[in-house]
Amino acid sequence: MTARRLFAAFALMIIAAGPAFAVQPDEMLKDPKLEARARELSKDLRCLVCQNENIDDSNADLAHDLRVLLRQRLAAGDTDQQAKQYLVARYGDYVLLKPPFNAETLVLWLGPGGLLLAGLGFAVAYYRRRVTAAAAADPAAAPLSEAESRRLTALLEDDKKS
Amino acid sequence: MRRWLVALPVTVFFVLVGFFIWRLVLMEHGDTPNIIPSVMINKPAPQFDLPPVVLDKPGLKLADLKGHVTLVNFFASWCIPCREEHPLLRGLGEKVRLVGIVYKDRPEQARAYLERLGDPYQAIGIINANLDSRDPQSQVGIDFGVTGVPESFLVDKQGVIRFKQIGPFTPEDINKKLLPLVAELSK
């Protein structure tokens, strides 16, 4: 009974413990719709000090500033695109966690797929060549000569008799 | 053809090793790839009008930058690399018009910092440390694309940003990058 109670208490603790948020209550907008938009947007924006964290997760000062600024822009009536553009104009595409598809990022977007295809091409060519070469070189793969097949039948006959 | 194919992986390997060593050597000399390229280069400096922080010196506004080649240095009293950079700035103040912007700091602490270490700036403005929608001047740092302190912007006579230093200056940065550019822009 006590064990079960302990377990229940423990489970409750686990359920009740939410993740720790970087977004402070005083940063949040009163309008839940706007706040939801701000949360979604900030997940795609890079904290430029910590570099690989988005501003929604980061506790850095600059991330706080960018969150507040983003909310100010949305509250002032900016669309999501305009709010993002506002930051891109100041910090460059680097502020976006998902880089845009353009001439500069072509290698970034297509590189991995291209390398994979090239690798597959090499592998296929290599194995094909190896299979044909092996077939040509391996005496066991050639058909049996007449003497060999006669010997084989003889052996098999012997087996049956015994 | 086949021999060439066999040598390919080894060649690629050594090319990569060479590339990595080259990058490491460059990093030793301060060329780190994690420095964020600024989009503000060759763009006009943003509009701003900041109140003074030191009693006998004026604040700073965009109009003050026009007509001179100016180095705008963002600093704060709590910033340790700024302290490291400070002696260099004192020397630099004689070669280029140097102005300061206090970033995320209290006025009295910025004053104490300058009293203790010396004040190389011709004018100093202070940004409201808290981003406040009623005070458009509180986001001057963001308008400049500042990510932290120290950061410095070289602004030409027309008010266009020509160079950005992220982090503290080194003597090498000043002699090899900054001063040649100042000389060129001052013509």
Outline the structure in words.
The complex is a heterodimer of chains A (162) and B (187). Chain A is an all-alpha fold and 162 residues long. Chain A folds into two domains: 2-100, Cytochrome C biogenesis protein (Helicase, Ruva Protein, domain 3, Orthogonal Bundle); 106-161, no CATH class. Chain A is built from six helices and no strands. Chain A is elongated. Chain B is α/β, with parallel strands linked by helices and 187 residues long. Chain B has two domains: 1-35; 49-186, 3-Layer(aba) Sandwich (Glutaredoxin), CATH 3.40.30.10. Chain B has helices at residues 2-28, 62-65, 80-92, 107-117, 140-143, 171-186, and strands spanning 49-50, 60-61, 70-75, 97-102, 123-126, 151-155, 161-166. Chain B has a five-stranded mixed sheet, covered by helices on one side. Chain B has a two-stranded antiparallel sheet with strand order 1-2. The mean pLDDT of chain B is 90. Chain B contains six helices and seven strands, in the order H-E-E-H-E-H-E-H-E-H-E-E-H. Helices cover 40% and strands 17% of the residues of chain B. In chain B, helix 4 links the parallel strand 4 and strand 5 (123-126). The chains are: A mainly alpha (162), B alpha/beta (187). Chain A binds chain B through residues 48-49, 51, 61-62, 64-66, 68-69, 72, 75, 88-92, 94, and chain B through 34, 36-40, 104, 131, 133, 139, 141-145, 147-148.
Summarize the structure.
Chain A is an all-alpha fold and 162 residues long. Chain A is built from six helices and no strands.
Total domain modules of chain A? 2
Tally of alpha and pi helices of chain B: 6
CATH C-level class of the largest domain in chain B = Alpha Beta
Chains forming the largest contact? A-B, 18 and 17 residues
Mean of residue pLDDT of chain B?
90
> What would CATH call the homologous superfamily of the largest domain in chain B?
Glutaredoxin
Structural class label of chain B: alpha/beta
Q: Which CATH-level-2 architecture of the largest domain in chain A?
A: Orthogonal Bundle
Number of helices of chain A: 6
The major β-sheet of chain B equals: 5 strands, mixed
Computed Rg of chain A: 34 Å
As a percent range, the share of helical residues of chain A equals 55-70%
In the CATH scheme, what's the topology name of the largest domain in chain A?
Answer: Helicase, Ruva Protein, domain 3
Shape of chain B: elongated
Distance between the termini of chain B: 59 Å
Largest sheet: spatial strand order of chain B: 5-4-3-6-7
Low-confidence stretches of chain A: none
Distance between the termini of chain A: 74 Å
